[in-house]
Amino acid sequence: MTVSDEAFASKNKVESSSNFIREFLTQRNYLEAKGLPLFSYHATEVEYKRNKDLLRFRAPTSLTLNDRDWCACFCLFSAEWYRREYQTGFSWAGIFEQLGYELDANQRSKVIVKGLTFWKRPINKHSAYRNDYLGSVFAEGGLPFALLAAEGSRFQSLFKRLLNEFDRAKSFGQSPLPFIEQQLIKLPDAFQAQSTVTLLHDMVSNLYGLIDTYELEKQSNPAKHLDNLLPKWRNSFPIPLDTQLGDEFLSVLLSSATQQRKVSKLVSERLRLTQWVKGTERLAFNSEITVSKKLSVDLNKQDLTAPIVEVLIYEGDKQIADLGMARAELVKEQIILHLRKTKVTFTRDVYEAPLKLVVMQAGRIRLSEEIPRSWLPCDEMPLLLNQQEQLSVIGLGSHSKKRNP
């Protein structure tokens, strides 16, 4: 939605909380709060500063603490501060520093309950008996964008892994949330909150939904193409959109998701690995590898001395299965292997060793390609299993209990 910042900027610096709330909702064509997370209203920078001025001028008194609209303004400001300025820690200090005063524990509980009730939003809990007021307003802020920007390329790399794990989990009919939690373990504490895990899951889901609906993998500039087709597509994401940095950040994420979806489709068509627990008294695993009948490989014409090659599966440095003979054909400077046998099943011997696709000719290895996520380090970390017809391996990683601030 487009909010008229000029109209807001022309207002007097100090105003009533009821006037601010009324105009805030009116600008979005709402007569009342809709029960949406506060970040989804996409408060602008002008609105954020205007709300701060209002709260600084009308410091807490017995009157303001009982004013529903003042409490609503306080919750909105606190959520927006988290979205725009949060960097580290889990305290009210940053919010109070901006406002120039503090609320004690009793005042905070009263204000947050009254304010979030106005917005028709729930209060998070530490446990069945304790409300989590700070965690509640942080959750309303969505993702801490200043922290995301500070993480820079580290978050971009993480997001690419999230995209990959999301596709992988969905292919097994599983929730991607446990996989997302595993990827976030080494990031700052703010990313450990369950609300943040859920938001990142929803971001990936929304991006993939846009990519699939509008076939963005066919576009050289997916963000620009989507801007033309669906100008307000960014509004569904918990990132400030009134700054160039936020806009560019989301465009980069869309490009990463588009590329990952393209790669995932190619990989799934080219080679697929399934591993599951073998039904024996001792722990054992079976693996099945399926490849395309026309398998592209990273070889060139000079790598081969004849058109016939042998395609093998190695476990570490030892052959464990084979896909038989194949005919190599040069197509547009790329070698394509034509296989008769496209599926092989075998029992693993050395679980912690990666599986490899090996192309051999005249007794020499011409290509050794490691198959991603094929190693099973059972002694080092737990395996994530999916019980359908059999216990299939769907991932690995350490177990960590997440807090919900």
Can you characterise this structure?
It is a single chain. With 405 residues, this protein is of the alpha+beta class. It folds into three domains: 5-142, no CATH class; 146-269, no CATH class; 284-377. 41% of the residues lie in helices and 19% in strands. The protein is built from 13 helices and eleven strands. The protein has helices at residues 5-9, 17-26, 45-57, 68-85, 93-99, 105-118, 133-141, 145-151, 153-171, 177-184, 194-214, 222-229, 244-270; strands at residues 271-277, 285-291, 294-297, 308-315, 318-331, 334-339, 343-347, 355-361, 364-370, 383-387, 391-396. Strands 3-6-5-4-8-9 form a six-stranded antiparallel β-sheet, with no helix packed on it. A hairpin with a 7-residue loop joins strand 1 and strand 2. Helix 2 packs across helix 4 (68-85) and helix 9 crosses helix 13 (244-270). The chain is elongated. It starts with a helix and ends in a 9-residue tail after the last strand.
Tally the helices: what do you get? 13
How many structurally independent domains?
Answer: 3
- Based on helices, strands and strand pairing, what is the structural class? alpha+beta
Q: Outline, from the CA principal axes?
A: elongated
Distance from first to last alpha carbon: 30 Å
Ranges where pLDDT stays below 50 over 5 or more residues in a row are: 1-12, 396-405
| Beta strand % | 15-25%
How would you sum up the major sheet? 6 strands, antiparallel
Order of strands, main sheet, comes to 3-6-5-4-8-9
User: What does the average pLDDT come to?
Assistant: 85
Rounded radius of gyration (Å): 27 Å
DSSP E strands, number: 11
Task: Write down the secondary-structure element order.
Answer: HHHHHHHHHHHHHEEEEEEEEEEE
Helical percent range?
A: 40-55%
